[in-house]
Specification:
about 20% helix, single chain, 14 strands, about 30% strand
């Protein structure tokens, strides 16, 4: 299983970082976790046909995680004739997002053939399993009661990847430690809590490798000395993800 951190910015994108989106590749199949801008361009730059993006999982309905979805849907529908058996399923944390997304397609005069674009709800626990990849959702409190948000555990055999999504401001008290009953690689956001608190919260967990994403350069300083100092004694590898960086996951 391979992870590609397409976009690693927190909040607004920057000159060097796009909004949150992560691509999982397993047995030749593609699974997209979040769809921040400009995800359609990032997928195109990798030479991946839009019709190959069959499953999309959205952690929460903030613009920097969902704002690129309309463009991706539009490109998918434009190209679906090249792959008549293709279909895209979008798993939403809030089904109230379905109508606005479809309304945009109407504004764009893009007719959606029946069965080509499907919306399903994210539900707590294992809610997706195609025999290749299984996805489980763990509720978080990033929206502080205003709406649901989720972390996702992606499993392929013994390979396990925990993507935290965005967590609660201030203390990371909703970090999905329950997903780490067995070792896993963890892709963790790093902007909604003091970095010192984050590193202490994850230090004792059974993490194979910790990859920080969804952060701002100002958080860590220009030369990352602060990051290196705080993580030098960790019992597992730690690094900062860059846009379009590839990670190979092993059991």
């Amino acid at each position: 299983m391979k992870l590609i951190t397409l976009g690693t910015a927190a909040g607004n994108s920057s000159r060097t970082r796009a909004n949150a989106s992560n691509l999982i590749i397993s047995e030749g199949k593609y699974y997209l976790i979040d769809a921040g801008e400009p995800v359609k361009a990032l997928i195109f730059s990798r030479g991946i046909p839009y019709t190959d993006i069959g499953k999309v999982f959205i952690s929460h309905c903030h613009e920097d995680h969902l704002g690129g979805m309309v463009g991706l849907m539009n490109c998918f529908i434009r190209e679906h004739r090249k792959a008549p058996d293709s279909a895209m399923t979008v798993y939403l944390p809030e089904m109230t997002a379905e109508k606005p997304l479809l309304d945009f397609m109407t504004v764009f005069h893009r007719k959606i053939p029946e069965g080509k674009l499907v919306f399903e709800p994210v539900t707590v626990g294992k809610f997706y399993d195609d025999g290749n990849v299984a996805v489980s959702a763990y509720p978080t409190d990033h929206l502080e009661g205003a709406g649901p948000s989720y972390a996702f555990l992606i499993e392929h055999g013994e390979e396990r990847l925990l993507i935290t999504g965005d967590l609660r401001w201030g203390d990371f008290g909703d970090f999905p430690a329950a997903a780490l009953d067995r070792p896993a690689v963890c892709l963790c956001e790093a902007v909604h809590c003091p970095f010192e608190v984050i590193v202490e919260r994850v230090r004792g967990l059974p993490i194979r490798k910790l990859i920080f994403t969804h952060y701002k350069e100002s958080l860590l300083g220009e030369d990352h000395d602060f990051f290196l100092e705080k993580t030098k004694d960790f019992p597992f590898p730690v690094q900062l993800a860059e846009d379009d960086e590839e990670f190979t996951l092993e059991s």
